Amino acid sequence: MMSIIDESTTAATLKAPVKNHWLAHLFLQFSHTPVGTQLTRTQRKGPLSVQKAFYPEGRDCAHIYLLHPPAGIVSGDELRINVDVQQDAHLLFTTPGAGRFYRARTNLEIGDTKQSQITQLQLEADAKCENFPQETIVYEGADGFNTVDIKLTSSSVYLGWDITCLGLPDSDEPFLNGKYCQLNRLYCDEILIYHDRIALSPANQLLTHPAGLACNSVFATFLAYAPQKLKQPQQRAELLALLRDQVKQQDAQTLISISDIDGLLVIRYLGAQAQQCKQLFISLWEILRPLLIDKTALQPRVWHT
Q1: What average pLDDT does the segment 274-290 reach?
Q2: Would 153 be classed as within a structural domain?
Q3: 118 lies in some domain
Q4: Residue 6: pLDDT over 70
Q5: Distance linking the first and last C-alpha atoms of the chain
Q6: What are phi and psi of 175, to 5 degrees?
Q7: Would 54 be classed as within a structural domain?
Q8: Total domain count for the chain?
Q9: Considering the entire predicted model, what is its pTM?
Q10: What is the mean pLDDT of residues 99-111?
Q11: For 54-68, 93-107, 264-278, which range has the lowest pLDDT when averaged over its residues?
């Protein structure tokens, strides 16, 4: 007996929204005003928000904590964060705790298992942005995609890192069968100058391959870009020497590499401890910040809670 299927019903079923998922968006604009850097515009949808700006260094530098009450990203979630730092404004952007990509659902009825976070940072002329989220934990079986796009001008300054932890090896939950893609791009005056992508999956074996992560569970990148501050190769060479000497003093030469890519300083960590990575990055930030932003490094209070 022939069955008749209503095509419109089938199409509607295939496009049915995923249950128990979040499509969240947060837009923040920071402006330089007579009373310092102020959060002047906010738009939000879904469970992304920020507290009021804090000013532990004075009114010219706003510290902002990104809040995500669900505390993690599951299948079907898409979080979009857009930050616009206007001319002469200075923002330090961080999170009160680790981000998480949880195990992807296996129930085929929900449709796509992808879990996404997309961050876009726009810096206008003479703007300064320090983007220091705490580590991102990617659970075994996740299907995550995390991207950071930075768009700045030749007179702005950017310092930012991302720290990724794969699985929970200390709890005997290694990252074996999950998928995770990290994409970082940086544009200066609308020209792409840095594109870095890693896509981990059981198929490509990058997690274990010697040319990949070589069985390390934590990888991280710290970018520093200040075209006007570091115009001359000799300036950058002297700075690289300072940074590498700091790495040597901490006996971390096998964990940290530092490169100068046409004025963009790229600092990489490959190891097994997120806290170790963060402390190494902070020690390098303490060198970079006074030179590029003319301020001593003051850690956000939330890092100590």
Answers
A1: 98
A2: yes
A3: yes
A4: no
A5: 67
A6: -90, 105
A7: yes
A8: 1
A9: 0.91
A10: 78
A11: 93-107
Give the structural domain span for 292.
20-304
Which pLDDT does position 250 carry in this prediction?
Answer: 97
With a CB cutoff of 8 Å and minimum separation 6, the contacts of 258 are 240, 243, 244, 247, 265, 266, 267, 268
Output the six-digit token pair for 236: 């950058």
Pull the structure tokens for residue 208: 């274990």
The Cα–Cα gap between 8 and 129 comes to 49
Judge whether 10 lies within some domain: no
